[in-house]
Amino acid sequence: MPFIVRMGANAIAILLIAYLLPQVMSANGAMAALAAAFVLALVNAVVRPVFILLTLPVTVVTLGVFLLVINGLLLWLVSVIVPGFHVNGFLGAVAGSVLISIISWVLTRVVP
C-alpha cells in the first residue's frame, strides 16, 4: 500500500509541475503522468542504487550535491522511456526532480 500511495503522490506531483511549469516538463494527461510515476519508481529501485555506488567518490567530494545530478539524469531517462512525458533539457530534469521530491514528500505527509 505505501508503494501505491507514493506512486500516486509522484503522479500528482508530475501533473502539478506539468500544469504550473510547462517550461520544465510536460505530460499528456493523467495516464502519462501515472506511467511516468511507475517507471520512475522502477528506475529509482533498480538503476539509482547502481548509479549511486558507481559515483560514490564524486558524491562524497561534492558532499551529496551530485545526487541532484543523478536524480535529474534518472528523470531524463524516464522521459525518454515514457511516451507522452517530456522533460525540457538537463536543467529542467534536475529542477523537476527536486520539485517532484518536495511535492511528493508533502503529499505523503498529508496522506496517512
Q: What characteristics describe this protein?
A:
single chain; 112 residues; 5 helices; 2 strands; 5% strand
Blueprint (SSEs and pairs):
Layout (H helix, E strand, L loop, with lengths): L1 H19 L4 E3 L2 H25 L1 H6 L4 H16 L3 E3 L1 H22 L2
Antiparallel strand pairs: 1-2
Helix pairs in contact: 1-2, 1-5, 2-4, 4-5
Describe the structure.
The chain has helices spanning 2-20, 30-54, 56-61, 66-81, 89-110, and strands spanning 25-27, 85-87. It has 112 residues and is mainly alpha-helical. The chain has one domain. The chain has a two-stranded antiparallel sheet. Helix 1 (2-20) packs across helix 5 and helix 4 (66-81) packs across helix 5 (89-110). The protein is globular, with a radius of gyration of 14 Å. The model has no long low-confidence stretch (mean pLDDT 92).
